[in-house]
Amino acid sequence: MDRYIQWVTEFPFVSAFIQFAILGTLGELLSFAIRNRKLAPSGPPLMILGKIAAWGVLGIVIKLGFTGMRGFVAALNEHSLVPEFLTGTVGMAFVLSVNTNLFFGPQMMFFHRVEENVLARRWDMTGLYKAWLTLLWFWIPAHTVTFSLPKEFQIGLAAVWSVALGLIMGLTAPRKTAGFTQHENNL
Fold first, then answer.
1. Element (DSSP H or E) covering residue 177
2. So where are the chain's domains?
3. Distance CA 135, CA 129 (A)
4. Residue 181: beta bridge partners?
5. What number of CA atoms fall less than 13 Å from residue 50's CA on the CB side?
6. pTM of structure
7. How far apart are CA 133 and CA 150, in angstroms?
8. In a 10 Å sphere around its CB, with 0-12 CB exposed, 13-18 middle and 19+ buried, how is residue 186 labelled?
9. How far is residue 140's CA from residue 144's CA, in Å, rounded to a whole number?
10. Residue 145 to residues 94, 98, 139: CA-CA distances in angstroms?
């Protein structure tokens, strides 16, 4: 554990890139595999490499966002703009999570969608609204836990949450069978 802490402390951007490149991509591939009922890549090899790089860049963006939002919330607290009952460890983690996910999350998700569109050479924002809703029901609670941990573990856990969300999204998405989604088969 000491080596991990040393690594993320000495190389914050490299470690964020690598953790998200691996775990973000894994979450996406897991979701794809569950939805399509087959263990296969979600695109050609160059597309997969592009997605790995896109997830890595997103890890750096998230590292910057977490750091910036921490300063933002500290300034709010310094000016007595955080309710007193939320100034404990878990309360401040919740305040940081809410602010991060409401003020930083939508732009970060839009940026990631642009990355995906560049890789696919298309412009499609389908599903972005549903992705934004995950900020409320998934990311605020998840990042409350994340921000309750020491800073050294926060980016790593955020990347792990990407795998968890990929699993959830894969299990709750309509299944594809014989060219139809599960919902179409039930009509």
1. strand 176-177
2. 18-174
3. 10
4. 176
5. 15
6. 0.90
7. 27
8. exposed
9. 6
10. 8, 12, 10
Burial class, 160, CB count within 10 angstroms (exposed 0-12 / middle 13-18 / buried 19+): middle
pLDDT for the residue 176: 66
Answer whether residue 183 shows pLDDT above 60: no
- What ranges in 11-139 are assigned the alpha helix state H? 12-36, 45-78, 89-99, 105-120, 128-134
Tokens 């896109």 -> residue: 54
Query: Quick check: 185 pLDDT over 70?
Result: no
Only one residue has tokens 């991060």, namely 100
Query: Whole-angstrom Cα distance, residue 133 to residue 37?
Result: 25
> Within the chain, what is the greatest distance between any pair of CA atoms?
59
pLDDT in tens, 3-45: 999 999 999 999 999 999 999 999 999 999 999 988 887 789 9
The DSSP output letter for 101 is: I
For residues 39 and 131, give the distance between their C-alpha atoms in angstroms, rounded to a whole number. 24
pLDDT per residue as tens digits for the range 112-147? 999 999 999 999 999 999 999 999 999 999 999 999
Cα 126 off chain centre by: 18
